[in-house]
Here is the input.
Amino acid sequence: MIVAFPAGGPTDATARLIAQKLSVALSQPVIVDNRPGASGAIGTTALIKSAPDGYTVSMFGMPALVAPIVYRNNAYDVRKDFTCVASVYDLPLVFMINPAVLPGVGTLKDFIAAAKAQPVNYSTAGSGSIGHLAMEQLKDMGGFPMQHVGYKGSAPAITDLLGGQIAAMFVDLVAAMPHIRSGRLKALALGSADARAFLPDVPSIAQQGFADFNVSSWSGLIVPNATPPAVLARLDQGLRRILAEQDTRTRLQNIGALSAYQPPEVMKRRMAGEFERWSKVASEKDISI
Here is the structure.
């Protein structure tokens, strides 16, 4: 199982759980192979070039979907260069602030008013990341200014947010939760209503006046094109079964993710819709790397 992201991150953590479960479901050892780089493009390209025999799969994450949109020289097309097996999990996103930098800001409405009065900066895990694209879309919807500061990963971005050099950030809950729980950072809004399973007292962005706004990071299993239908069916059945198990659902939630099985045709439609949505945002904002 190729994981196109570093060991220890959310995609890696969930992939290792799913690999362990699939090993039992398929009676076949499943070994995780981390191939990070270029927002998932290196690992995804390796999957595309693999033999379509069912012995190489990949846990495809949202950064790898966005990469072809923002990287000028990307080598693959998410709409046709691989085959979807099934979606696996949703990774909720949260918009949070450093309350020491923005005292008295308790809601998204408060934040927008503060940003209009005096423009503030926000950090993301990198230029062209889903956090970057989502915040640019929210800025347009809310009509407020913000300055983007892109980092090489969520860890250094959060470090500067904690240090007060940055005012706000839109990031996944896996990275955010320890600092929200400690009280050092304050969650103002969730990217999707599903995220309230983790922070029930925090309303979503849609619930705070932006009804059409809904965003989360998510991941699913992919294989090379021309993989035999029987292999696809066996993988799909295995995923469907293990994602329905309470143990799997609980362990995913402990990581900060939500079990979200969808069959291949639904995953493919979702991927196409996400690609179209974020391509439009990147084009309008001239976001490219």
